[in-house]
Amino acid sequence: MDKKGSYYRYINNVGWIYVAPALLLYVGLLAYPILSSLYLVTQKWQGYSHKFIGLGNFARMFRDGLFWQALGHNFLFMAIQMPLMIFLALILAVILNQGIHRFRGTFRTFFFLPAVTSLVAYSVLFRIILQTNGLLNSFMMNMHLITQPIGWLNDPFWAKITIVLALTWRWTGYNMVFFLVGLQNIDTQIYEAAEVDGASRLRQFFNITIPLLVPVILFSAVTSTNGTMQLFDEPNVLTWEGGPANATMTVALYIYRQAFVLNSDFGYASALSYVMVLISGLLAFLQIRFLRERS
Amino acid sequence: MMVERKISVSRVFLWILLVIGAAASIFPFFWMLIGSTQNPNDVVAGVLKPGNQFSQNWKYVSGTYNVLRFFLNSLKIAAFTVIFGILVNGFAAFGFEKYRSKARERVFAVMLLALILPQIAIVIPLFRLIATFRLLNTHLAIILPSVMSVFIIFFLRQNFKMFPTEIMEAGRVDGAHEFRIFFTLVVPSMKATFTSASIYIFLAQWNSYLWPLMIILNNVQKTLPIALFSMMRDYTIQYGAVMVVVCISTFPILIMFLAMQRQFVQGLLGSVK
Fold it and tell me: Would you say A57 and A267 are in contact if contact means Cβ atoms under 8 Å apart?
């Protein structure tokens, strides 16, 4: 009996030894810095020193028009880009799954390719392609699709479109692969039964495919919500530091600029970070509840 | 007859849609190759014919710009992150899954909270910590915080569920030491899982931008994405040279992807299992 007890203790200790390195790194480089920085929220930076201002940073946040504008951009990108991308990915997945029989693998590879490139590398490529006298404008003018070059990077409205297009280019194929896997798990007999009942292809799509894919679609929605909330690379490189005139400024980029570019105000940046943690947590909570209700 | 015709028209439409989509997806890759052989003006104007400036562009990025150094920096950082990441996260996932206890389940639940933390919220306090330890401008500062990944632990743990515990018991009966079980029984039979995780870690680190941007300020320590960003900052941008660097930072990933596509996709799909 005693021997068995000591064996369990031994096995339990082995378990702790296995998780110890990860746990140490988690505590030291994640939990500790975040929790210990909680006090930074109450500090105001003045040059190299800082002083206590209580909730002053949050008061400043409520008056800070640019922060709200940035937060608005995050939600705007989410509201426009996410449905567009999920719709496109769904269509492509259905076509690859049912519409064609040849070159399926080749198309899948091509569509997936953008998802593996470096964010900075593709942002740089897009930045060159989208210049006012660049490739896309001259192509569209030659095709007589437009008469004036479009300010993809200089016009506040078109710069937002640019971000949406770039995100869609990069992530559509990635989401399509998820949908493809989901589609392949659907029993073909359901479609055969629908065919017998005389349901058209379009009705099959809306009444069978979409409902059965809801879990996968939700997964995509959760992942891209998270991604869009954290959007940083594209507005920093592609539309250059949230430009033009802050038209593509996002919260993450704004926090970064507060802490490292503009005035190294770590207090204000930390306060904004905590607000972002709160928003992300809230969104995650809502999505998990929605997922639970669905299943 | 009518029906057949109708089907073939819609089929043609589908093919056109697919071809346009595929062309849009791969055009930038094709264009970056052409661009690396052109002079700056042709790159910006979007001339689609290969030029003859490749050697000049290469001279610029390798001489003035020392791109080989940045490439090796990126490679070194990604490789070390993969090695330590696989070890640390593999151990943790194995410990959580095959040595279950109430206490460890609670620890795991707390660790999962990190999945919803926005990166920007982590990097600011982490930057101050790294600065206190005087690790700014070191590669260690990039590698260390990316070794432990809750996502990778979660992914590996999901896969370890498929590894039969009976085999571990058999190993114990044969007198294998607890820590040998991991290396001699688990690792060899879960190669595909480890490959997927390695690819995922490599890709994430090779492409990482926000954290290295904060940590690396001097030129010799830069990684490819950071170097590329500073090239775009120059007063006169050498677009041909920029295209060469874009090629260099994209090719390793591209080759890896085409060679190991199955594991690649599996790695990214791991989270929905």
Answer: yes
Q: Give A46's strand partners.
A: A49
Where does B66-233 sit in CATH, by number?
A: 1.10.3720.10
Domain span at A10: 2-52
Q: List Cβ<8 Å contacts ≥24 apart for A39-46.
A: A40/A266, A40/A267, A40/A270, A40/A271, A40/B125, A41/A267, A41/A270, A41/A271, A41/A274, A42/A267, A43/A266, A43/A267, A44/A265, A44/A267, A44/A268, A45/A263, A45/A264, A45/A265, A45/A266, A45/A267, A45/A268
The DSSP result for A157-213, as a single string, is HHHHHHHHHHHHHHHHHHHHHHHHHHHHTS-HHHHHHHHHTT--HHHHIIIIIHHHH
Interface of A with B in 213-272 (CB under 8 A): 216, 219, 226, 229-230, 232-233, 237, 251-252, 255-256, 259-260, 266, 269-270
Single-letter residue type at A195:
E
ipTM of the complex: 0.91
Nearest CA in chain A to B181: A14
All residues at 6 or more sequence positions from A228 whose CB lies less than 8 Å from its CB, including other chains: A74, A77, A78, A81, A82, A167
CATH of the domain at A118: 1.10.3720.10
Residues 6+ apart with CB under 8 A from A181: A216, B269, B272
pLDDT at B1: 43
Q: Which of A10, A25, A277 has the most B C-beta neighbours within 10 Å, making it the best mutation to test the interface with B? A: A25
**Reported pTM:** 0.91
My answer on whether omega of the bond before B225 falls inside 30° of 0, hence cis, is no
- Does residue A162 have a pLDDT over 70? yes
Q: Where are the domains of chain B?
A: 66-233
